[in-house]
Amino acid sequence: APGLYLVATPIGNLEDITLRALRVLRSVDRIACEDTRQTQKLLNHFGIKTPTVSYHMHNEASRSEELAAELAAGARIAVVSDAGTPGIADPGGQIAAAAIAAGIAVFPVPGANAAISALIASGLPTERFTFHGFLPAKEGARKTALEALPRDGGVQVFYEAPHRIVDTLADVEASFGATQHVVVARELTKLHEEFLRGPVGELRGILAARASVRGEIVLLLALSAAETTVRTTSIAEEVAAVRKAEG
Ligand code: SAM
């Protein structure tokens, strides 16, 4: 049917493309790509010859109008991002909104997504979660964002850059204490996939001890309703204080 197809592509393992995604990418009139070179690699791998057109953060609004005009004329257009589900911490949402506003059918073609993949294998309760996309890069804003997280609000899911993860874990530790449980999911579906699950203080130590942290990362944590007081004194100091008080 004519319309806009939002097509998920793999986040690592190329086997994670769906049969439907392949059929749609083969049969549409063109594929709107976040980065045509990136998508061309995928298309070459699967022998797909459909023409591509680029759209990205900076031209998504203008490109959306062009594509909406083509769609109005009866075209079938697929939208893909560099990896995973378009529109999720990626462009694609504006094109979908423009198509909907123009009365054009929009079809999701679901598939890989880093946040959901991390969540289901995190070991955290999956009933309720909030996806935040990327945390602010600047320390002050990041701390503010962390402090604003709800207690007892389910799992909080973040995308994070590898060169910032140690600093972010330090911020989590400063805000919620070293024993706050966190999950770091790295390189999902890829050769070096890794899950680190445990107290934030420990995980920060493990990652800080590495020469460098590479790859793509999802960070997950759930804050319990019980107010956490961040310990500023050592246990030994506290024991000494109690002993002293007891005389
Ligand atoms: N649209 C994508 C999706 O559906 O997940 C997300 C795109 S966003 C620009 C890229 C970020 O997603 C990365 O910086 C990382 O935080 C996360 N991500 C993407 N692929 C990943 C993977 N294989 N393993 C862990 N995190 C990943």
Query: Mind summarizing the main beta sheet?
Result: 5 strands, parallel
Radius of gyration: 22 Å
Mean pLDDT: 94
Q: Give start-end ranges of low-pLDDT stretches.
A: none
Biggest sheet strand order reads 3-2-4-1-5
Give the amount of beta strand, in percent: 15-25%
Please give the alpha-carbon distance between the first and last residues.
82 Å
Q: What is the ordering of alpha helices and beta strands?
A: EHEHEHEHEHEHEHEEHEH
Helical content stands at 25-40%
**What is the tally of helical segments?**
9
What overall form do the CA principal axes indicate?
Answer: elongated
What is the number of beta strands?
10
Named once each, the bound ligands are:
S-adenosylmethionine
* SS-derived structural category: alpha/beta
